[in-house]
Design a protein that fits this description.
With 248 residues, the chain is α/β, with parallel strands linked by helices. It has seven helices and six strands. Strands 3-4-2-1-5-6 form a six-stranded parallel sheet, sandwiched between helices. α4 links the parallel β3 and β4. Bound molecules: farnesyl diphosphate (FPP). Farnesyl diphosphate binds next to α1, α2, β2 and α3.
């Protein structure tokens, strides 16, 4: 597991830490990190992919049960062909390199989003990774790939209409739980905490439905500089919040 530097806060030195079951992260700031160092954007993404590894380790250490990472949004296709291809290469590399370690550490890996636009070899890597890790219970790592919250809702509505036409659901059955079952996140708890790095304060089409009662942490750190301490900082702040879900 991730080794903490001497003097830094560790999960055990925070006995009353209320750890969120589901943390979702908008990993932002790779480009700015690279620019600050006069490096190509790829260098920021590459470092960002290494930080994904550290973040998974830190989540395991803290006892987080679900970690959802916004790795590629449905809007990210608008980036240059070169950048899209770089991001896909890093994803391939991650899926090839990390699966054995994730599996050994009890991590189940899956994705949310529309797989139909992903390259067939990437889809195959995802299917294999899901199959290999399917019985792992310690942490569910969900990569949001070609994911957009509005597109997810449209996808769910289409399927719901099809099922209604086929007589599988009636309008009386349609409530929040029913709609949630048609989302990519079916079976997962809603995120307790959404973290966005880089100082931007936007949701950017991430988990729109699921974020109804989520707490937010906007960190000033750029994603490639995110550490276990950054995660502890966000979780500590979360611990002190009073969640009322609309009640008094
Ligand atoms: C946002 O930074 C980040 C992304 C669009 C992609 C996130 C991808 C990674 C962390 C690496 C690959 C992921 C995995 C799971 C292996 P930005 O480029 O928008 O940064 P900027 O706003 O500073 O330009």
């Amino acid at each position: 597991m991730l080794k903490l530097k001497a003097g830094k806060k560790s999960a055990t030195s925070l006995p009353k830490l209320k750890v969120p079951a589901h943390v979702a992260i908008i990993m932002d700031g790779n480009g700015r990190w690279a620019k600050k160092r006069h490096l190509p954007r790829f260098a920021g993404h590459k470092r960002g992919a290494d930080v994904v590894r550290d973040c998974v380790e830190a989540s395991l250490d803290l006892g987080i049960r679900y970690l959802t990472l916004y790795a590629f949004s449905s809007e990210n296709w608008k980036r240059s062909t070169e950048e899209v291809s770089d991001l896909m290469s890093l994803l391939r590399l991650y899926l090839r390199r990390e699966i054995d370690d994730l599996d050994k550490n009890g991590v189940y890996i899956t994705t949310i989003g529309d797989r139909s636009r992903l390259a067939p070899d990437i889809v195959e890597l995802i299917v294999q990774a899901e199959k290999k890790t399917q019985n792992n219970k310690k942490l569910q790592l969900t990569l949001a790939l070609n994911y957009g919250g509005q597109a997810e809702i449209v996808h769910a509505v289409k399927q719901l209409v099809r099922d209604a036409k086929d007589g599988k659901v009636s309008d009386d059955d349609i409530n929040e739980e029913c709609v949630a079952r048609y989302l990519y996140t079916n079976g997962m708890p809603d995120p307790d905490l959404i973290i966005r790095t880089s100082g931007e304060k936007r949701l950017s089409n991430f988990l729109l439905w699921q974020a109804a009662y989520t707490e937010f942490a906007f960190l000033d750190v750029l994603w490639p500089d995110f550490t276990k301490e950054s995660l502890i900082e966000a979780v500590t702040d979360f611990s002190q919040r009073d969640r009322r879900y609309g009640a008094r």
